[in-house]
TrEMBL record:
Keyword Transferase applies: no
GO molecular function: monooxygenase activity
Domain of life per record: Bacteria
Protein name: Heme-degrading monooxygenase HmoA
Taxonomic placement: Bacteria, Bacillati, Bacillota, Bacilli, Bacillales
Amino acid sequence: MNAYMTHGTVDFLTTLKDKHPSIDFFFMTSGAKGLTYYEGTGKSIFVAGRTYEILLQNGAIQKEGFVVMNNIPVTDDGRPVFEDRFKQRGKEVDKMPGFQAFRLLKPDNGNTYVVFTQWKSESDFDNWKNSANFQKAHKDSGTKPPAYFADRPFVTTYHMMREDET
């Protein structure tokens, strides 16, 4: 199964649902930027977008909520170690109130993996970040980035657009 994403103006992105009514799109915003996400098999319908293999998943992505994407550049040699780390994860995040979905996305092109989590609200995500479960899940993070990081990870956040906004 794959995940597909593209950026653009909200006005442009929301026209996709009329052009491709059989696809279950998820529309998100971050400030003035828009992002459209969908999951499926085969070739992406996006002319300019990114394709990922879904390596791990839990929960169903909802049409409402708050999305956090941890973008983690990983060296070619470090990919197996990075992927195994997630396969061995304790799944503490999945047990948190407000948790909706998790995806570990491996890029088809490039080296930046995406750790996608969706929460019912931004405050639910904040509660996760401030929890003992978060500390437990990230106890091995330390101050020095792992050797398999190709560059500094960065976080992007989005609010899901409600159906009446699209």
